[in-house]
Design brief:
- By secondary structure, the chain is α/β, with parallel strands linked by helices.
- The protein has 10 helices and 15 strands.
- Strands 1-2-6-3-5-4-7-8-9 form a 9-stranded mixed β-sheet, sandwiched between helices. A 4-stranded parallel β-sheet has the order 10-13-11-12, covered by helices on one side. The protein has a two-stranded antiparallel ribbon with strand order 14-15.
- It is globular.
- The structure holds threonylcarbamoyladenylate and magnesium ion (MG).
């Protein structure tokens, strides 16, 4: 049975892919630096990028966090198990490789039943970044993990498609007020319902506070451009350009076109986002044009991911699209074209 095999591999210090409610993770024993090093190797992830530790139960938090502020406590109480990651002062037991040498550790108690069972039976925290190669789109089903890492890892524990489809929201609880490090599965509005939270962009530190904040993260290979206006309001798109729209498709319908929220729900859009990006990336189109996304609810995290995945904004002149040359790298080149 896969769970038994998974536990054997984890005890042997091997990384395996695991389902969570947000995205698939590449998990290994979070207190064993050799096992953690294998995650970095499989992902080709730079060592300055710290990992999230996953726990079976909120009551496991004190074993990893040296201090739990009332704010951290309130957030854990409100959103765990679930798509929220808290950054807290670390206990000495947490390996430096996990935190990239930072004095703080990121911890999450996931809600996915199979992941929780695995964590309970393993009995130790699991370090798990998203199960993609560094800088690429996070996988939201087992097939996507296979495409990213299939030849590099011994097991993919298949728990079906991820119900949320966006990575966890990360909150730094070591500052006053708490600070949003990454928009994600729990909307900022829900966090602010519990306590004040600063969402101003961090001043560039020597090490990125959360390298998920790096530009050109979550990126497809095909150039992606953000449209300043809904594509449905623009003249016909050039041929062999794909469209990623919120709810209203452009006319005439480009091929391919993906509608994130046919039911206007940000939950539906989040669950579709990474799969649609992968599908459009594989479609052979020259470029992907994306609608502006809503600023509220999960729209904020979707906007953030698309912004990081993009090569800039669509440049419109006199309502005509400029021809996009092949191998286009940046919006500046587009302006010069
Ligand atoms: O939903 C998720 O969070 C998924 C699932 C698998 O749990 N995990 C995930 O991990 O997205 P990853 O490694 O792809 O993104 C974690 C982010 C990175 O941007 C990392 O820099 C940041 O969390 N992070 C980890 N430890 C941190 C720390 N001590 N301080 C600040 N940021 C940290
Ligand atoms: Mg990631």
């Amino acid at each position: 049975m896969d769970l038994t095999h998974a536990l054997q591999l984890l005890h042997a210090g091997q990384p395996i892919a695991v389902p969570t409610e947000t995205v698939y993770g590449l998990a290994a024993d979070g207190l064993n630096p050799n096992a953690v090093a294998r995650i970095f190797a499989a992902k080709e992830r730079p060592h300055f990028d710290p990992l999230i530790l996953h726990i079976a139960d909120p009551s496991d938090l004190p074993s990893l966090a040296a201090h739990i502020s009332p704010e951290a406590q309130a957030l854990a109480h409100a959103f765990w198990p679930g798509g929220l990651t808290l950054v807290l002062p670390k206990q000495p037991v947490v390996p430096d490789l996990v935190t990239a040498g930072l004095p703080h550790v990121a911890v999450r108690c996931p809600a996915h039943p199979l992941m929780r069972q695995l964590l309970r039976e393993f009995g130790r925290p699991l370090a798990a970044p998203s199960a993609n190669r560094f800088g690429r789109i996070s996988p939201t089903d087992a097939d996507a993990v296979r495409a990213e890492l299939g030849d590099r890892i011994p097991l993919i524990l298949d728990g079906g498609p991820c119900p949320i489809g966006l990575e966890s929201t990360i909150i730094d609880t070591t500052t006053r007020p708490c600070r949003l490090l990454r928009a994600g599965a729990i909307p900022l509005e829900a966090i602010r319902h519990i306590l004040p939270c600063d969402d101003s962009p961090p001043v560039a530190p020597a090490q990125p506070a959360a390298p998920g904040l790096l530009h050109s993260h979550y990126a497809p290979t095909t150039p992606l451009f953000l449209s300043p206006q809904p594509l449905a309001q623009l003249p016909p798109l050039p041929s062999s350009v794909a469209a990623l729209v919120w709810s209203n498709p452009p006319h005439p319908l480009p091929t391919p076109c993906r509608i994130l929220a046919p039911d206007h729900s940000d939950l539906t859009a989040a669950a579709n986002l990474f799969r649609f990006l992968r599908e459009l990336d594989a479609s052979g189109c020259r470029a992907i044009y994306a609608d502006p996304m809503p600023q509220t609810g999960l729209g904020r995290a979707i906007r953030d991911r698309l912004h990081r995945a993009s090569r800039g904004s669509l440049h419109l002149e006199d309502h005509q699209f400029l021809e996009i040359p092949r191998n286009l790298r940046s919006s500046d080149e587009l302006k010069q074209a």
